[in-house]
Amino acid sequence: MPSPVSQTLAATPLMHRRAMQSLVMLSAIIMLWTGFRPAFEPANREVPSVSPLPAEEWKTRRYAIASGDSLSRIFSSQGFSQKQMQQIMAADQSLLALDILRPGHILTFELDDNQQLLAMELHIHAGNRILYQRDDNGEFSYQELLNPGEWHSSTLVGTISGSFYQSAKSAGLNDTEIATVQQLFGDRLDFSRDVQAGAHFQVVRSDNYVVTGTSKEATGLSRIEGVRFFNRRQQFTAFLHDNGQYYAANGDSLERAFMRVPLAHRFRISDDFNPRRLHPVTGMVRPHNGTDFAVPTGSAVLAAAEGRVIRVEQHPFAGRYVEIQHHGQYKTRYLHLSKALVHPGQQVTRGQRIALSGATGRVTGAHLHYELHINNRPVDPMRASIPLATAVPADSRDAFIQRITIISKQMEQQALLARQQSDKAEALVN
Ligand SMILES: [Zn+2]
Questions:
Q1: pLDDT tens digits, 355-376
Q2: In 3-state terms, what secondary structure has residue 124?
Q3: Centroid of ligand 1 to alpha carbon of 106 (angstroms)
Q4: CB 3.0-4.6 Å disulfide test: which of 7, 111, 162, 313 passes with 59?
Q5: Ligand 1: distance of its center to the CA of 84 in Å?
Q6: Model pTM?
Q7: What are phi and psi of 20, to 5 degrees?
Q8: 311 C-alpha to center of ligand 1: Å?
Q9: Distance from the alpha carbon of residue 229 to the mean position of ligand 1, in angstroms
Q10: Cα(292) to centroid(ligand 1), Å
Q11: Does residue 37 contact residue 134 with C-beta atoms inside 8 Å?
């Protein structure tokens, strides 16, 4: 029977295996099973109860999304009406999962005897499927089928040769993780000027897997649990705490603070976050995944925190909307805008004007619908714990110290292993 370590290695992506072989870069990676719980477990939200149909009534058709596909093109190629697509998009308004279709994701359609759409499933990965189902009144509602899976940590070490980006890439970090490291240390370290050749770094990362039977499928979700960066004689550290925020080893916050309300002036809240809200007309569960502010059209909408714009879209129900990726765990969405003042890919600062509010999409009046997502789950933006740039809370300081001790030990073991490997490689060359 293979050891847990070799089993995990078999599931290591090819890129990592390449990095492992690259002794020239002095980088190595081994996935280790660790005793510590990852800092941040995504919460399973309650989902509306929709009873599945008896299997014999279902006729199934599968469609693999290709690059350049749009929902409208897929629906017409499958012979479904634009009306049905509108109904599905109405159901998706509070999720917006269908707005950006990724190649490789799978759509499964279930038809009734009249070849009409009964249900549609969007398969994002084994841990995240979304089922849109037709109800008795002909409208669709959605249900998220979530499997939180398991988080396995791995330790990556590397030495700077060329740019930090290239060296981190070779060590096995992805673009988002590299951006996270740069953001965490950005205030104190200029990665393009201050980083010296020979500087080195250690990263403990967790990857998410869904286990079904004997197979283990990576969901593509990952997060950085801890980083140490050694440059000249300085050490920079960042550790993820169980409140979802990063702190230096001494407990100082490394987060950019968030604004609770992304507006320049005070406005009345016209509708609260409510994952179990009922539709006023149909009576079906239509989650309200954000907070509504009664703002007149044309009011300035501000970025809640520093980040990068990842979506500027137009949706028949959500209207014009903007989505921002903040460091690591956080995302924000701003809906029903009259005008976007930013474009996808743009870097924004906290408090920057990103849009003008409006009444686009299906609304009863002008307002701003604001969403905060932590670990890809919508949370109540008015109540969630948001980074306020303060130190580790006193009541969880001991737990934090314990975590960083375990993670640091893991880093040291891996750094030692990498040194031994590079010594061996040098001995071979000499
Ligand atoms: Zn709303």
A1: 999 999 999 999 999 999 988 8
A2: strand
A3: 29
A4: 111
A5: 23
A6: 0.70
A7: -60, -35
A8: 18
A9: 42
A10: 5
A11: no
